[in-house]
Amino acid sequence: MLPDEKNDQNNLTSPLQLEASQDISGAVDAGSACQKLTFWLQNLFPSNEVSILLVDPGSNRVGLFMRGGVLEEDLEATGQVLLDSVPEQVLSSGQVVLNSSVNAPSSSQVIVPLKCKEKVIGVVSLLSPAHRSGYEPFDIDLILSLASQAAASIETARLYKAEQEKLQVEEKLIQAERNLSAGLKPFELPAAILEQMAAVVPYERGSFLMREGHVLRIAAQRGFPKDERTQQLVIPLREGDVFFQIADSNRPVLIDDVTLAPGWTQVPWLAINHSWVGVPLFSKDRVVGMVSLTRREKGAFSQEDVLMATAFALQAAMALENAALYEEITRFNQQLEQMVQQRTEELNKALLALERMDKNKTDFINVAAHELRTPLTIMKGYLGMLQSNDTVKVTPLLVQALDGILKGTDRLHEIINSMLDVARIDNQVLNLKLEAVALPSIIKRVQSDFNTYLAERKQVLQLLDLDHLPLVQGDSLMLLKVFQNVIINAIKYTPDGGMITITGGRLQDEKIGDCVEISIQDTGIGIDPGQQEVIFEKFYSTGKVSLHSSGKSSFKGGGPGLGLAIARGIVLAHGGRIWVESVRYDEEACLGSCFHILLPLKSVIQ
Ligand code: ADP
């Protein structure tokens, strides 16, 4: 360097160095860092030829070569020559090398390492023109300082780029996962997996192979010839081949050149692609297949590619399992739905049949009751005539016989009327005649009607707290039937000498609202909890038919099983409720039953 230049340099060193340093540290990639370094070195050392060479970390190949700020394009061809020309100590130990008289006489060259945190990532060379003095120590310090600034920028840019690439790959993986979980059917997945895989690890030919016994069968492919051979491709498995290497180690296998791989068998009609990577496909910790990817060139897949493909295959396997599970659940649901539909149809049919049978029963009761009533009325008419006959009147035996026949026909009449009532309730043609009804007077009437039965059975019927009860709206004749049926049951199912207590009260019911409750408590045989609902069905009778007695009030003298069905039908038609409470059926202990009847004060009948 010339003395006057050196003076200038001395004056400018600090501010220029500062500006250069700041400028270089602002570089965003290796190329611009090298360009800036070249620019400032040429500025500080005019007429010097500046060359920069960067070495790829890991591979030790030339990653960039720049001469006078211009990038060398064909690194493949020149790379090794360049590397060989760099003095060994600059790259290995990071020491500066100073050469005098290189090429032209009296020119000098200085080769300075690009060093960041003790790691040499390249070199920068300055060649002074001929007839210039060499590089002073402070020149070298300056070059070293700018070179390390550039190295720092390059490293930061590299790290940033690596981080960006990682993020992009993660983003691709997430996107691929999303695409794969978008409700695809299991048979659609292999092709989708190969397609998504291409976005993460570029390849030329890829196949999705599933193991079936001793062969690998192709489930999907990309880049294969579109003909039958591809569709029917089956690869026989042989001891020690790549699939077993993958399956035994649960790890991927990378081959840089398949033509050099021992035991490699090539499908004859497929062009040789030198680079191969196979990644395992897992199902419940077992390798069930593999994804095979190939590229034409040798050594085309990097370790990162293998990692990416493996990570992707793991996700793909999960997607496959999820899809299979989803399909299984969907199939199961469909089966279940079918079964439910079938059962519902069966139940509907059964319900229809039952309804039809019930209707037939009601129709029969109706017809039978009407048919029986006519001859009965005729019989009763003739019996009345006989009763008033003078000859009969004076013959005690005939009087007694007629009396018996009349009682029988009355009972028959009652039963026929009950059958008609049930038919009316079933057909919902009760036609209530509503009025204000005093329940106590109805109950008292039943009491007086049943006095004879009570006396026969030595039972007491007591009425408590009834007089203060408010009026209800109802059909007094119908309500009379309700209490007749419930009270006659209390007499029938209570042993001789028992007690029947009827109480009443006003209350607010959740469903009915303001209402009167009448409770009929007996000291009879009781009813099992399991029977307490069914006794209100028509024709239901807990006792044996053989025990049925024709006597209306005799102990356990079962009737036709209509009384409670009629009582419930009438109470419901009034908008009320009827139920029974009893500890259990027990003829020894006679714990009794209590029938409750709720009737609304205001009419709720539509
Ligand atoms: P039934 O004509 O048989 O009396 P109901 O419909 O009046 O028909 O009664 C049905 C069945 O309910 C009766 O057979 C009887 O077993 C049972 N039951 C009704 N009231 C009582 C009661 N107070 N105590 C015990 N069992 C009763």
Question: What is the arithmetic mean of pLDDT?
Answer: 86
Global geometry: rod-shaped
Distance from first to last alpha carbon:
119 Å
Give the proportion of residues in helices. Answer: 40-55%
Q: What is the count of β-strands? A: 19
User: Given the helix and strand composition, which structural class is it?
Assistant: alpha+beta
**Rounded Rg:** 54 Å
Low-confidence stretches: 1-12
Tally of DSSP helical segments = 15
- Spatial sequence of strands, sheet with the most strands: 3-2-1-6-5-4
Core attributes:
single chain, 606 residues, alpha+beta, six-stranded antiparallel sheet, 15 helices, 19 strands, rod-shaped, disordered N terminus, binds adenosine-5'-diphosphate
What's the arrangement of secondary structure elements?
Blueprint: H1 3-25, H2 30-44, E1 49-55, E2 62-67, E3 70-71, H3 75-85, H4 88-93, E4 97-100, E5 108-116, E6 119-127, H5 137-180, H6 189-200, E7 205-212, E8 215-222, H7 228-231, E9 234-236, H8 242-249, E10 253-255, E11 275-283, E12 286-295, H9 303-387, H10 390-393, H11 396-426, E13 435-437, H12 439-449, H13 451-456, E14 460-464, E15 472-474, H14 476-492, E16 499-509, E17 513-522, H15 563-573, E18 577-582, E19 593-600
Parallel strand pairs: 14-16
Antiparallel strand pairs: 1-2, 1-6, 2-3, 4-5, 5-6, 7-8, 7-12, 8-9, 10-11, 11-12, 13-15, 16-17, 17-19, 18-19
Helix pairs in contact: 1-2, 1-5, 2-5, 5-6, 5-9, 6-9, 9-11, 11-15, 12-14, 14-15
